[in-house]
Structures are given as C-alpha cells and as structure tokens.
Amino acid sequence: MDYILRGRSFYLNPPTRESFAKAISLFEHALALDPQSTEAKTFLAVVLVNRIQNGMTDSAAADLTRAADLVDQALAVSPRSAWAHYAKGGVLRGRKRCEDAIPEYETALTLNRNFVAALTGLGWCKLFAGSIDEVIPLEEKAIRLSPRDPNIAYRYLLIGTVHLLQSRTDEAIAWLEKGRSAMPAQPGFRDRLAAAYALRGETERAAAELAEARRLRGEGSLSSIASLRTTGYWGVPKIRALFETTLFVGLRKAGMPEE
Asked: Tens digits of per-residue pLDDT, 74-110?
C-alpha cells in the first residue's frame, strides 16, 4: 500500500519522463510484493497509458500491450472499479478506438460522477468521434468540480484544441498559454501553440514553441507533416479535416516541412 500511495503521488506530479518512470517503478514494486493487487495493476495501467498520451515514451506499443493486459486482469476481479474502466478507456483510445472507449469513460463516471480525469478522457474521445460541440461543456464541468486539480492543465489543453480547430485562434492561444504555464513540460501545449502563433502571424514565437515541443517529445519527433499524419490519431474524417486546415497549416507556417 505504501508503494501504491507513493506511486499515485508521483502520478499527480506534472508530467515528465522522470515522473512517469518513478511512478511505474513504484507500482511495479507494489506488484512484486503482492502480484494479485488489483489496485497496483490498475494504476500501473493508468500510468502506462498516460505516458503514451503525453508522448513521453519510446516504447508506446509495448506500454499499450502491457496496460491492456493489466486492466483486463483488474476488471476481471473488480468490474465496478471506476479507475479500471478509466484505464480501459485509455487503452482503447491508444488503439484509436474512441467510439469503443466512450462507454468505458461513461461507466467510470457512472461509478464516480466526480471523476474529472474520466471527463477529460471522454472529452478527447467525443472530439475524435466527431461530437466536437460536446467537448468544452465536459471540460468546463471538470474545472468546476476540481478547480485546484494538479492536472487541470489537461482541461485547458482540450479546450484550447477545440478553439484552435474551430478557428478561434485568440481563444485557443489564451487557453493553451494558461495550460503551458501550469504544466510547462507537457509538449502538447507547445505544438498547438506553435500552430496558433503561426496562424496569427507570430512566426518567431511559433518556431520557438515548435523547437521546444520537439525537445520535450524526444529525438526525431515532429519531424514532418507526413510523419505527423501517419503516427498521430486525428479522428473521424470531419475532425481530421479540421486538423488539416488549422493545426497542420499552422505547423507548416511555423517551419515544419511537408516530408
């Protein structure tokens, strides 16, 4: 239990490769002491999935496979665990199956209606599934429920992304800058800010944010528009079209090559 609590503490820290690695190590220690611990399996799966979503792993495929196995074991023992359903939603989202992930997040919220992380996971999947107008109200609810949440910046990221996709560039920048201040090591703010600044004509600021996004994501990341298209997940066709006409256009203006 001590290892689980310490692991959860590191999980709540601002996301860095080091904080994810430390949390994983602590949950692994917990499982070494009690291989049947459903809680340790669940939170290890959660951290593995979140490390993938934050772009802070060099072993995404292996992390996803391991998380899927852990969460299936956890749900077999504790089918009413909100955290296990949340982790299952993350696994499905990682497999680009957002429509299948939505019921998992909704189940987590049925079991715990104040589960703000599940609201954010649901928001991302609603976006990728095409229900873009439902996203901001979900994140506004999450912010109201937990206004001092250490991970509130994820709500800002999603709200800023929706504004960017709907060409409300000034609103997008305001939310993304707010999130960057709260969580400076999260690269997702940087590439979106790079695009938004470029769309507003601030090319120097855009280039600086793109360079920082590449540094945070690791060597070889964000190398071209073509690689971004193939490695990222951009949702159903109508949402993918919005990314093409906003994020990708902005990243080109910020200096990202086509190939």
From this structure: 999 999 999 999 999 999 999 999 999 999 999 999 9
The torsion of the CA quartet 161, 164, 165, 167, rounded to 10 degrees, works out to: 160
CATH number of the domain enclosing 239: 1.25.40.10
Q: Rounded to a whole number, what is the largest CA-CA distance in the chain?
A: 56
User: Which domain range does residue 15 map to?
Assistant: 1-113
What pTM value is reported for the model?
0.92
Strand runs (DSSP E) across the chain, as ranges? none
Say if CB 67 and CB 24 are below 8 A apart.
no
Secondary structure class of 258 (helix, strand, coil)? coil
Identify whether residues 36 and 88 lie together within a single domain: yes
171 and 101 within one domain: no
User: What's the per-residue H, E or C state across 171-214?
Assistant: HHHHHHHHHHHHCCCCHHHHHHHHHHHHHCCCHHHHHHHHHHHH
* Helix (H/G/I), strand (E/B), else coil: 79: coil
